C-alpha cells in the first residue's frame, strides 16, 4: 500500500549547499589557510563545518514528517519497514566506501584507517565515539563518516519513540535531548580546551539538531513558510551571521573550541538558530527558483559527502606532482590550489553520479517495497 508522495526538491538543494559547505572547509585539510594573513577567508571557510548540523536537522525533519504521515494514514508505524528503508539507503554505499578504503590503504598511503579497532567501531556505527576517544583518524577520507554513525544512532530510536510515544513522546524526548546537549556543551567548556575536543563528534552534543528537526516537523504540520525571495535571502544571511558570531567570537569550532562556560551555550544556540534559519529559508521555495542541476546534486549528496575527502587526498597528495605539472602546462601555477579544487569537485561529482546511477539505484528500487509514504527515493 502506498500513500501520497512527499517530496520537496528545495530540500535537495539545501543538501547540496550543506555538502558544498563541508567541501569548502575540508579543502583546508589539504591547503591550509593562514588565519593571520587571511582572517576573513579563513573564518568564512571554517563555517563550512556547520554544514553537518544542517544535514542532521534536515534528516530528522524528513524522517519525522514521513513517520507521522504514515501514522496518520495507516494508524501505525511499521518499524521493520522503517529499518529496511534506512538499511537499503545507507548501508550499501557506507560499507562499500569504508571497506574500500581499508583495502585501498594497502596500495595508497593515508587513504584508510590502519587501526582494526576503528574497523569494528565504524562497522557498528560507533565511529564518532572512536574519534571522541582517539582523535581524528590520520586518513582524511574516513573522518567524514563519523556523522553517519550519529545519524544511525538517531535512526535506531526515532521510529520506536514515534510508535509508542506518538507526538507527545517525540516532543518530550526532543526537549530532553536538547537539555542534555546544552548540559554537555557546558561541561566541555568547564574543562577548558587544549587542542582537540571530542564535543564535535559527541552524539549528545549533536542530538540538539535532530531534536530541532523533529520539533520543526511537528510544529509545521506539513506547512511551509510563505516568505518572499527577498525574505529568504535575508534569512540565509542572518543564518550566516549567527554562525560567524558563534565561530569567531564565541569560540564554537569543530576541532579546537575555546568557549567559556557562559559563552558556550550561547554560541551553540546561535549555531542552532543559524541552522534553523537556513532550513526555513529554503523550505517552501518555489520550484522555478531551483536550478535542476542543483537539485540533482542534492539528490546524490550522500555520495558526494562520502567520496570528497578521498578525491581531495588523491588530488593534493597522491597525484600532487602531476597536478603541479598540469597547472604549469595551463600557465596557472599560481592558481595551483584553485585548479586542484576544481578538478576535485568535478571528479567527486562524476564519482557520486556513477555510484548513484549504477550502484545505489538498485537498492533504492528495493527500498520501495518497504515504503508507505514515497519520497524522492
From TrEMBL:
Protein's UniProt keywords contain Metal-binding: no
Keywords for the protein's UniProt record, in alphabetical order: Acyltransferase, Membrane, Transferase, Transmembrane, Transmembrane helix
Leading EC class: transferase
One example GO MF annotation: acyltransferase activity
InterPro entries: Acyl_transf_3_dom (IPR002656), Acyltransferase_3 (IPR050879)
Highest taxon listed in the record's lineage: Bacteria
EC number(s) reported in the record: 2.3.-.-
Record-annotated membrane-spanning stretches: 12-28, 40-67, 88-107, 119-137, 168-188, 200-220, 232-250, 262-284, 296-315, 335-359
Acyltransferase domain boundaries: 9-352
Name used for this protein in its record: Acyltransferase family protein
Organism for this UniProt entry: Acidicapsa dinghuensis
Lineage: Bacteria, Pseudomonadati, Acidobacteriota, Terriglobia, Terriglobales
